[in-house]
Structures are given as C-alpha cells and as structure tokens.
Amino acid sequence: MFAKLSPMLRSQKVTTWLLWCLIIIYITFFTVVSFLRHDRFETAAYDLGIFDQVVWFTSQGKILKLTNLPDNYSLLNVHFAPILIPLSLSYLVAPTPKTLLLLQSVSLGLSALPIFWLAKQKLNVWAGLAFTLIYLLFPALEGANLFDFHPATLAVVFLAFAYWYLQCRNYKMFLLFALLIMSCKEELSLYVLLMGLYAAVINRDWKIGIGIFILGLVVFLTVNLVVMPTFSHTGQINFHLSRYSALGDTAGEILQTLLSRPKYVWEYIASDKNRLYYLRSLLAPTAYLSLLDPATLFTIIPTVAINILSNWNPTYALDRFHYTAPAVPFIVAAAINGMARLVKLIQRLYKLRHTFIIALFICATVAVAVVYHVRFGHTPMGGNYYLPAQEPRHTVARQLLDLIPPDAIVSAQANLNPHLTHRVVTYSFPKIEDSREGPATYIALDTIGNIFPLWPDDYNTLVSELYNGGDYEAIFEQDGYLLLRRISGADDL
Fold this sequence. Notes:
Blueprint: H1 2-39, H2 45-59, H3 84-87, H4 97-110, H5 112-122, H6 125-136, H7 139-146, H8 151-167, H9 171-182, H10 189-201, H11 206-231, H12 251-260, H13 262-270, H14 273-281, H15 294-297, H16 301-308, H17 328-350, H18 354-376, H19 392-402, E1 410-412, E2 426-428, E3 433-434, E4 438-439, E5 442-446, H20 456-468, E6 472-478, E7 481-486
Parallel strand pairs: 1-2, 1-5
Antiparallel strand pairs: 3-4, 5-7, 6-7
Helix pairs in contact: 1-4, 1-6, 4-8, 5-6, 5-8, 5-17, 6-18, 8-9, 10-11, 17-18
C-alpha cells in the first residue's frame, strides 16, 4: 500500500512545486516590470497618481481624500473603493506607489489558486497546472497588471476565490469575499448579485441564493444612488454616465434604451469594429470552451456590457487596460467546466480513456492560449511586451522633482504626478488651482511626455500661456522638462 502511495505523494509535491513556481514567476516578473515603468516615468496621474494620493491621504487619517482631479475632494465622487482604507495600512510600512504595484501583482498571481483548485477538481491535477498557465498568460489579465493600479484589478483575486467557494457551497467564505468584491468598485456588486442567481438556479440553494442576490442589489443601488451622489459636487449618480450618451442622458434613459430598442443598441455596438473584435476575441484565449458553461459565463455580462456600450474606446481595448480583468476568472472557470462536460460526453460516446481525452484537450487549449499570448501578451514572448528604457533625461526629471519644496502646492503633468502625490496638495495638470486649496505654487511639466487628458493643441496653448502670462516664472528648463514657480504677489488665476 505504501509503495502505491509513494508515487502519488511525489506527484503532489511536484505539482504543488510547479504551481507555486508559475505563480511566483508571474508575481516576480510583473512586479519588476511595474517598478521599472514607475522608475522610468511610464506611470501616470490617471490612475496611479490618483489612487496613490488617496491611499496616502487615508494613511494620514484623511479618509479617501482627493485633490488631484478638478472639483473633487473625495474618491467617493469618482469611484466607490473603501478597500483602500485597510490597504492604506501598508503605507505605514512602505509609503510609496510601488507598494500598490506590488500588491496588485501579488493579488493577481494568487488569484490563480482557485483556478488550479477548480481544474484539479473537475479534471485532474495536471489540468490544474495547465489552466493555471492559461490563466496567467491571459493578456487581459497581464494588461491590467501593467496599467498602473486600480482597485477593480485588485478585486480579481476576490472574485476568483468567491467563485471557488460558490462551487464548494461554502457560503460563509463566499460572503467574506463578496464583501471584499463590493468594496473595490461601484458596479462590482453586480457580480455578487449574479452569483446569487447562480447559487439559486445551478446550486439549487434557493434561499441562500436569493439572499445573496438581494444583498448585491441593495449594495449596488445604495452605492450608486445614495453614496456616490452624496459626495458628488454636481449631485450626479456617476459622472462616467457621459460615456453612454448615445443611449441616453440619465441612468433611467440608458436602461430604457437597452430594454426597448435592442436593434438600435446592436447597431450602435456594430458601428465600431473594435467593439465587434472585443466580443469575438474575449473568449479566444480559452479556445471558446467557455461557451460550454453559459451559467458561469452569464456572470460577466455586466462587465462586457459596460465595456462595449461605452464611447470611451479604452474600455473595449481588450488586452491593454484594466476594464476586462474582473471577467477573466469567470472566463477561465467556464472553460474548465466546459472542458469537463466535453470530456464526459466524448468518453460516453467513444469509450476512450478519461486521462487521454483530458490530455488531448489540454494540449490543444494550451496551444491556443500560447498562440494568442504570442500575439497579444505582455511577457517577452508576447506581441504587447514593452519594457521602457532608461533614458538620460530621467535623471533630469529627478533633478526637477528635487527642486520642489515638500510643502509646496504642485500641479504635475501625467507622468510626473505619481512621484509628487505625498504632499498636502497635488493637482493633476491641467488642474492648477482649487477654490479650497488655492493655486499651485509650482507646475511640473514634461513637454515631450504624456500630456493626457489634453490634446496637443490645447496643451501647447496652455503651456505657452503659463510660460508667458506673468504669473509664473521658469526656474528649470532642460530636455523637455519645465518647472514653473508662481511669482510672489501674482494675482489669483
């Protein structure tokens, strides 16, 4: 008996070792690349500077305070992300934007664990390793990892664990992760709502499922109709509604259009080939096996709808930004369930060995995932791989940053902003003043760098006006970097 157990134990040790190797390699690689991007001024005010400022303020006792954005004094006007409150404790140890980048990489790496467990349960342990690889190679996940920091990306690990505990019918642990999910972004409670329906219909736990559904619905309505409008300077439900102006001016009008004019909605979606590409390619890294588990796939409908109905094209730029990341665990989980069903069907029809069928499908699916990754992935073998080079002008940028006093009110351009947010007041250029905090005493610019959210003509006009307007003087100008200081006694802007 012990002789039979020995190979099994060795196999478990090997697979556990391989699993953690994959996760650690992922975490290490994306942490290093994220740090290099920040050190080489590739991160930006939108959004690392914004969230870093909020976390730093919160660690100082100013809960979710924000000065970076125009007419905003609380993150709750922009996003509902109270998860940043406990996260701010990390800044008591390491108060740097890199802490957020590290936590993001670690959380995404650890989100592979439930994927491994699910595939091991439904198929076998080697399938668990294969789907872990497929998951960690998913370009939409990697793209989110490298696009600054976002609480919604942090939610991926909570979503993965919540789905696993939903499968296990461990509703106490599910509730814990559901609460964490809903603390990351205002619309993520819709995932909890739909997982409640899954528990009711698929798990047949009707009372618990309906209870989860009601919890998700109540949180969604409370956050979006009460909490965020309370902190909004305009009283709007959500300023991101402007992205859906083609469907209506208010949440009610948008919902009415979706329900009453499906043909118009589809024509609107089809009017942009990039939206169609998004729909066509979303499941491609899993060889479309996800379609065989529509119940799990149903959970991602809110994310997909929010992305493709937007007029802000980064939301449906599939492999580059963070908008699709919350859907990735469900896409891969649906593929695992779909493969398990397909294996059972083929075994019943053709009487082939279970392990042989699994091996066949795993090889094919991994091959598809690797091919997709080669085209669109963010590792050195991927088509979207990009490692910013260290440039001599970065030394000049650090010289500019050192000239700004720690107590100064600063307006900083996109790629300089995340390096200046740990101070009483920092604005994201072109914001240069605030009715509460006053005008910026220093304006830090990179005239050949990232100028978002301005267009080139508007940017050049504004910089020229500041340079020649008489209220500011240039005290540093080199290699495209420009530091303006407010002239003492200048009239209010």
